[in-house]
Amino acid sequence: MTGMTPKQRIGAFLTGQPIDRPPCVPLILNHAARVLGVKVGRYAQDGETMGRAHIAAYRRYGHDLIAIFSDTCILAEAMGSKLYFPDDDVPRMQTPAVLSPDDVHKLEPVDARRAGRLPVHLEAIRRCVEEVGDEVFVSCCYSAPFTMAAGLRGTASLARDLYKNPELAHALLEKSLKLVEDFAEAVVEAGGIPVLVDPVASGSVISRKMFEDFALPGIVKSLKKIRSLGAAPLLHICGKTSNIIDLMAQSGAAALSVDVIELREAREKTHDSVCLMGNVRPTETLLEGTPESVRKSALDCLEACQDSPRGFILASGCEVPIATPPENVMALIQVAKDLARPIG
Asked: Is this model's pTM higher than 0.90 or not?
């Protein structure tokens, strides 16, 4: 077989079958709005626009996985946190739902298919699946319980709670887990693949001990839920992960999307027990670099993982910046395409 579709390629990769070239999944998220030529603020609040943006980006770049995403606060927003929506940038936290410890008791369960902007993302999934779902898998990235709890409480306040009020932190995590699991079901019902992201659990933010005590249990349960829905669970934690990469590998993820860590170090610390995905630098290489520097970085990543028994997915370390030059995105994908070979 030659010329596999992205869906065939990813499907074969996840089941251990031969593939024609390495999968390439630059994390094209809000950058899709630029491809369509719409403001990020509109993209973040309208499912039709979000879906059309990702279809346009896929048609332009031909990457191996569509990733629906706006911001890490969509679940917290659905439970009452207030966001600010810039005209042409990512939504930002304005007022957390839990300003005082007593507010946690006011948090009520919400409908994962109707609350806040969750229907926006579900509509975007459905539109992509309808238009290009026969060619490419459509995923949806959303927060793990720890990052969702930070969206409900505020990151600085949650960090203090870990030390001074761990009971409150655990209560927030419990309420967060319920919506995280419910939204996974909604994503699958819409035809998407759930992808768990936990940036606030990064080693850039909390210690290994806090990750193990507060973040990891929710990750494990959330990934188990995704697997029970018939999907291969992917975990992305951006920032520094050298001090937690071994724990991430024990989470049950089928693949780990990594950012600020050398791939050889990640392989060594995980004992090649899990597929790695990464990790071309988003800002200094994709946004600020040239096609040639992107190609060099991509080839370095492939070389570092060329003999991995678990395989490797070439990707950006984190979200492709909104203003990334299209030629740099194409350069990353072209490296993988240049390695295409007949199979079967």
From this structure: yes
The pair of three-digit structure tokens given for residue 73, joined into one six-digit string: 């606060």
Question: Quick check: 91 pLDDT over 90?
Answer: yes
Handedness of CA 119, 78, 235, 297 (dihedral sign): positive
Beta strands in the chain (DSSP E): 66-68, 82-84, 92-95, 138-143, 193-197, 234-236, 255-257, 275-280, 312-316
Indicate the pairing of strand 234-236 with strand 312-316: unpaired
3-state SS, residue 81: coil
Confidence tier at 342 by pLDDT (50, 70, 90): confident
Query: Could you read off the pLDDT of 160-216 as tens digits, one per residue?
Result: 999 999 999 999 999 999 999 999 999 999 999 999 999 999 999 999 999 999 999
Among the CATH numbers 3.20.20.210, 3.30.450.40, 3.90.1150.10, 3.40.50.300, which is that of 23-337? 3.20.20.210
Question: From CA 298, how far away is CA 333, in angstroms rounded?
Answer: 9
Neighbouring CB atoms inside 10 A of 54's CB total 29
Spatial contact of 26 and 329, defined as CB atoms under 8 Å apart = yes
Write the DSSP symbol of residue 333. Answer: H
Every domain of the chain and the residues it spans: 23-337
